[in-house]
């Protein structure tokens, strides 16, 4: 019996049917389109079985599947090593074309190169598209073609290019939904994938406070955050729709979206930053590598309320307010003189919005070792930060219920820690 001729669309960091570039192109194929998602064991095997992000991915896929079922189709979900899954797919179907959206992280680039070679060897046409960013790879570059390593000129060039084409085209494929393959694939439960529900949940995004974002963004007690970051990370929202909307609403909020693309461009152009300092001159810094101090930072028991509240919020919810992230990161690298890689790895375990480029970029910014970073001699005073941004102690009391019952002493005195950090950095910066 002849295998059915099909086109496959491969979901990855684009978990939506709306304004999905690769999917829109796939649905114009002459062959019926089977949408697929692969739970990659190369990633899953390193995660705890109750990882909240896997639960969110599963939930997002379920929503996609329900929409597909309403039009007589469904989502094919597989689990395994990616290349093995693709080998199974071409055995089961006569795959004529494969469509997917690009990913710019080193692991994904290597994976996609392997799969594209496999498809090419099997004479299967494959097409990739820009979807998770407005401008990718080398689209925003200096006059000599080199990547920007300072944010402000990058932002200016980004805005200039955006306004030359604004609004960015959006991709509506609803009139092509009839080209989805008619099928009824069994949708696996979370348990069947090998995971269990986590009580920590991704919060729906909320854009109602964007107009005043520049006034409220630094005050964690106000809870005016958009909660967008996990949705951008997994592509449950469209960056094109968001930017076309944000450019009319708030320049500071738009700047945060541009920072996201700046760090993605840095990661793409300088993949060493995943584990190494962007500024190699900082490679000589002698970190203390004190594991007991690190445990106190992780558990939120440093004696500095702003630091401890942030870490407890992270541990209990998978979120941490952006202002607080800067404070806790600076404290780890400057007050405790612990390597930024330790903090980056801990955030990678805990953050619902964990995204490699932004996490590495922001940690190196805090440590002073990255591109366009805070200077090494800038050491946040956690007590001053508390007075400026949580003067009434509303945020810290939410996460530190024992605060008014005799809260512990700081594990290190600020002035001492600041002097030690500056001296250590000075001695460690390679000439």
UniProtKB/TrEMBL annotation:
Keyword set includes ATP-binding: no
Leader sequence segment: none
Cofactor comment text: Binds 1 FAD per subunit.
Start and end residues of each Photolyase/cryptochrome alpha/beta domain: 5-134
Gene Ontology BP term (one): response to stress
Keywords: Chromophore, FAD, Flavoprotein, Lyase
Residues involved in FAD binding: 213, 225-229, 253, 256-263
Site entry: Electron transfer via tryptophanyl radical: 287, 340, 363
Pfam families linked to this entry: DNA_photolyase, FAD_binding_7
Cofactor dependency: FAD; (6R)-5,10-methylene-5,6,7,8-tetrahydrofolate
Lyase is among the record's keywords: yes
Example GO molecular function: deoxyribodipyrimidine photo-lyase activity
Top-rank taxon: Bacteria
Entry similarity comment: Belongs to the DNA photolyase family.
Name under which the protein is recorded: Deoxyribodipyrimidine photolyase
